[in-house]
Write a structure and sequence with these properties.
Blueprint lengths: L5 H4 L3 H12 L5 H7 L5 H5 L2 E2 L7 E2 L13 H35 L11 H10 L9 H17 L13 H9 L7 H11 L8 H31 L5 E5 L10 E5 L3 H10 L3 H9 L6 E5 H11 L3 E3 L4 H6 L5 E4 L8 H5 L5 E4 L10 E2 L7 H15 L15 E5 L3 H9 L7 H9 L4 E5 L11 H12 L2 E5 L1 H9 L6 H6 L2 H10 L4 E3 L6 H14 L11 E5 L5 H12 L3 E4 L9 H15 L3 E3 L3 H19 L2 H18 L1
The chain binds FE(4)-NI(1)-S(4) cluster and iron/sulfur cluster.
């Protein structure tokens, strides 16, 4: 392994310290493996490698412009792209499906320890989907809702009902372009069919289907996951917590959850304070256990319980390398297969819990949803039992952590803005119209070893709030901001421009709002749709001064998210390019032609400061079209006048 300069690889000090420890202990990490993989395949990077049939694999070059079947670069690139969107959509939506099935069981009285925690959220959803709720028990309503959501997966001929949650103009755009998604499962299957050898070869048709599939994610699977999570586990409201490796405990067993689906982590969050667990810990000579999270599972239990976040995607290995984790529980998505290898150097147990996600070297303990509390307690006891094996010589927990306020569901934001009796987006819309807030930026997605981890996210975030842009965050981008201290109200005082600061101070919110996990990107859609509904900022989502940015994304889910943002009328800036450069036509379609279809398109900005400029340009254009830029100009003019008079 080469000697590494840790400061060049990661932004935050805790990660730097732990990466240096990995280097001393000769442990391979994602960063050293990235070095060995560095000369990445150009065919893959440009999207022109096809291995869809076994006459191939084929690669497109100037000398061989067609695959063996005759497919050209446009077809191959578009087909590969659609398959990525399908995988992302499938991941989010399957997560949603698991929750709907849980909702159904709870409604049938077979909840296995889960309850309908948020009746208000349930009744609100019932009204939205025209399920009679008045005079009916919550179980009756929940069962109808669960069945309705299940039919969103299986529907063969009807477009998704969740599309109705979007502004009418967006709905019409989808209808007119024939990309209203039908049942989610059908969309996933159809896209796999289309990309089979010898089916759909028209890059435009393939790409339109990519947008259609992504809509089945953003307004379908992810939105359903979010609604059902809120019903089962509670709609998030602001909570205090902390983020970074420093949240790991030096004197208690650390149990860390990692992955995406919230059922088990929710039960763990409830069980850590159970008297049985407390007694068990005491008998082992410890004060209690310390629960923390990584990636989006962390975001789920942070949002609802204030459980601290140990780190984002690229800190999962580092968390193990602290030597201080007794049990690391993984379920699905973003859990690296390297974890058991790394854990072998310490006493850490990697426990996989989902039968559809196993890793050689991990201990597999399938999570029993029908007796979730028992499963959760067993895992916690396992961590307590393993504490005695912790080797103090190998432990180094960095001290760095930062205060965080999270839990900004759309309801919570409305409530903060307008109070309990006048909860509404009006004050936000007014602040945007008056120019105090220049616009909204959703900064989302992963972290990626291709750049210095967190750097793009952090520079972009601070520069945007300086320019009075309200920032909404999800996923690992939110964790980056948590570690950086941007998710606390003080960040407004220190960094925000005057207008944004005034709003944040008046309302008592940070300038960067943590809205949750990957599936909670649907909360950002919900927020923007609320802005439209509130009025004064245009007739549809594309009129709102709002931008989406995925600075350091890496997963297929992020591709699906980008697509449903664009198809919903929100421009998206990528800090990492898609693998489409091998086709000019596909690139033009994504970056230009989409503008004509959706009033929004993709942009690629390698550098965070260029991204800042692009964001401001997009917001200015939107403000100009709404005629609200003039207001600012007039105000500046007034001020100048006054100064002249004063002089
Ligand atoms: Fe995974 Fe959701 Fe990406 Fe983080 S941000 S690396 S997808 S955990 Ni959603
Ligand atoms: Fe090659 Fe065509 Fe088969 Fe792809 S589908 S591997 S381009 S022959």
């Amino acid at each position: 392994m080469q000697k590494i300069k840790v400061e060049d690889l990661v932004w935050d000090v805790a990660s730097q310290e732990t990466l240096a420890k990995a280097d001393r202990e000769c442990i391979d990490t994602v960063f050293s493996r990235y070095e060995t993989q560095k000369n990445q395949c150009k065919f893959g990077t440009n999207g022109v490698c096809c291995r869809i049939c076994h006459m191939g694999p084929c690669r497109i070059t100037p000398k061989s412009p067609r695959g063996i079947c005759g497919a050209d670069a446009d077809t191959i690139v578009a087909r590969n792209f659609l398959r990525e969107v399908v995988a992302g959509t499938a991941a989010h939506s399957d997560h949603g499906r698991h929750l709907v099935l849980r909702l159904k069981k709870v409604a049938e009285g077979k909840g296995g320890g889960y309850q309908l925690k948020d009746e208000k959220a349930l009744r609100k959803a019932a009204i939205e989907f025209k399920i009679i709720e008045e005079g009916r028990t919550i179980n009756e309503v929940a069962l109808d809702l669960a069945n309705l959501f299940l039919s969103e997966f299986t529907s063969q001929e009807e477009p998704l009902k969740t599309l109705k949650l979007a502004p009418v103009i967006q709905q019409n755009i989808w209808k007119n372009n024939h990309i209203e998604p039908l049942g989610i499962d059908r969309m996933v299957v159809e896209a796999m069919h289309r990309t089979h050898m010898g089916v759909d070869h028209d890059y435009r048709n393939l790409l339109l289907d990519a947008f259609r599939t992504s809509l089945a994610d953003g307004w379908g699977g992810s939105r359903i996951a979010m609604i059902v999570s809120d019903i089962l586990f509670g709609t998030p409201s602001p909570v205090r917590s902390a983020a970074n490796l420093g949240v790991l405990s030096a004197d208690r067993p650390n149990i860390v959850v990692h992955g995406h689906e919230p059922e088990l982590s929710e039960m763990l969050a409830l069980s850590v304070n159970d008297p049985e667990i407390k007694a068990y810990a005491r008998s082992a000579g410890v004060e209690g256990v310390n629960l923390a999270g990584i990636c989006c599972t962390a975001n789920e239990i942070l949002m609802r319980h204030g459980i601290p976040v140990a780190g984002s995607f690229l800190q999962q290995e580092l968390a193990v390398i602290t030597g201080a984790i007794e049990v690391l529980i993984v379920d699905v998505q973003c859990c690296m297969p390297s974890l058991p290898d790394i854990a072998r150097n310490y006493h850490t147990e990697i426990v996989s819990t989902s039968d559809m996600a196993k890793t050689i070297g991990a201990i597999h303990l399938a999570f029993d949803e029908n007796d979730a509390s028992k499963s959760a307690k067993e895992l916690i006891k396992r961590a307590i039992d393993n504490f005695k094996n912790r080797d103090p010589q190998k432990v180094a927990i960095p001290s760095a952590q930062n205060k965080v306020i999270a839990g900004f569901s759309v309801d919570a934001i409305k409530y903060m803005l307008g109070g309990r009796f006048r909860a509404s987006f009006r004050p936000l819309n007014d602040a945007i119209i008056s120019g105090r807030i220049h616009g909204i930026a959703g900064i989302v997605g992963c972290t990626n070893p291709k750049g210095r981890v967190d750097e793009y996210i952090n520079i972009l975030t601070i520069e945007l709030i300086k320019r009075n842009v309200l920032v909404l965050k999800t996923g690992c981008a939110a964790v980056a901001s948590g570690k950086e201290g941007m998710l606390k109200p003080e960040a407004a005082l220190e960094h925000a421009g005057k207008g944004l600061r005034e709003v944040c101070e008046a309302v008592g919110i940070p300038p960067v709002l943590h809205m949750g996990s990957c599936v909670d990107n649907s909360r950002i859609l919900e927020a923007v749709a609320e802005v439209v509904k509130e009025g004064g900022l245009g007739e549809d989502i594309s009129h709102v001064p709002a931008v989406g940015i995925a600075p350091e994304w890496m997963s297929e889910k992020a591709i699906a998210i980008g697509c449903y943002f664009v198809a919903s009328g929100i421009d998206v800036i990528l800090g990492q390019p898609f693998h489409i450069d091998g086709s000019e036509n596909v690139t033009r379609f994504m970056n230009e032609e989409t503008k004509k279809l959706f009033n929004a398109s993709f942009h690629y900005e390698k550098d965070p400061m260029q991204a800042v400029e692009k964001v401001m340009q997009i917001l200015n254009e939107a403000r100009g079209k709404l005629g609200i830029n003039k207001k600012i100009e007039r105000k500046l003019y007034d001020m100048k006048d006054r100064r002249e008079i004063n002089v």
